[in-house]
Write a structure and sequence with these properties.
With 298 residues, this protein is of the alpha/beta class. The protein contains twelve helices and twelve strands. β5, α5 and β6 form a beta-alpha-beta unit.
Length: 298
């Protein structure tokens, strides 16, 4: 399959590109800069210069492909409305050339769109006022193509996609522990986060591209509910620091920002049982706590 990928040079994208090529697919990847182009070329993909705002470029690349995988998401997080519009417009540009072809369009979102405080599944509706509600518009734009002759699906990734060279939430938590001298959690630390190893996430994207039915919502989750206290304790042991419980008010001043304090105190367990059964996906790489202990984080 000839696959066009956006976000191929990002955090999860390189593992996805490598996995697609290893499975026999050919990959063309969007590249905004010379550095991005060099990165995707080093992975064995063909760089395609352009950005998410160049809609004619996106349409041309999608039209030439047998399937599209949209991983990229970015912009100014101080203007979430603009980020949503940018993502939706890019998805529309990518999907339109695929109409009535039956070709796959896989759009990326995150499990933080799901309701807090209970175990959510792929069959539950996202929360429109939740922590990551700004991702829902992109989900809906992608899934709308399922009614327009496109094999459209959404992959919601866990907030922690862990593995070598991670630069997401967990490294930020570790950096705060190093700087403050304590490894902190909010309240009792019993709030739960889903997690997935990057190699398992890459396999899921490949399977989604190859065989996800139109309209599928998939959860990229290898572990449904890792407590934040257990994460803080492993970080503390690795750095030789004490753990500490913070109130929500204290957390707002301790972490990078009040928003990040809210994120680290969020209870968001998510199941991927339906995804695993539907696609035969079997995440088997190390879990988050094992990766923290034995990987390159500490």
């Amino acid at each position: 399959m000839r696959v066009f990928v956006t976000g191929g040079s990002g955090q999860t994208g390189p593992a996805v590109v490598r996995g697609l090529i290893a499975a026999g697919h050919s990959v063309t990847a969007l590249a905004r800069s010379h550095a991005s182009a060099a990165k995707v070329a080093s992975l064995g993909a063909v760089p395609y210069r352009g950005s998410l705002d160049e809609f004619d470029r996106l349409r041309a690349a999608a039209e030439a492909a047998d399937g599209v995988l949209h991983l990229a998401y970015g912009g100014d997080f101080s203007d979430l409305d603009d980020m949503m519009r940018r993502d939706v417009n890019a998805i529309e540009a990518l999907g339109e050339p695929l109409e009535q072809t039956g070709k796959p369009l896989i759009v990326t979102s995150g499990t933080l769109v799901m309701p807090a405080g209970r175990l959510s599944t792929e069959l539950d509706e996202p929360e429109l006022s939740g922590l990551a509600a700004f991702r829902v518009a992109g989900e809906r734009a992608g899934l709308a193509f399922a009614g327009r002759g496109v094999r459209a699906a959404v992959v919601r990734l866990a907030p922690t996609v862990h593995g070598p060279d991670d630069h997401g939430f967990i490294p930020m938590l570790i950096a705060t522990a190093r700087a403050s001298g304590v490894s902190a959690y909010v309240g009792a630390g019993g709030n739960r986060w889903p997690a997935v190893h990057r190699a398992d996430a890459a396999t899921l994207f490949r399977l989604a591209l190859e065989k996800a039915p139109a309209g599928s919502v998939l959860h990229g989750v290898g572990e449904s509910a890792v407590t934040m206290r257990s994460i803080a304790e492993v970080i503390a042991a690795g750095l030789g620091l004490p753990t500490v419980s913070l109130t929500r008010e204290e957390a707002a001043g301790h972490f990078v920002s009040p928003f990040m304090a809210t994120v680290y105190g969020h209870d968001a367990p998510v199941s991927s049982a339906h995804t695993q059964a539907l696609l035969g996906w079997a995440p088997g790489n190390p879990g988050l706590l094992d990766d923290l202990k034995n990987g390159d984080y500490l």
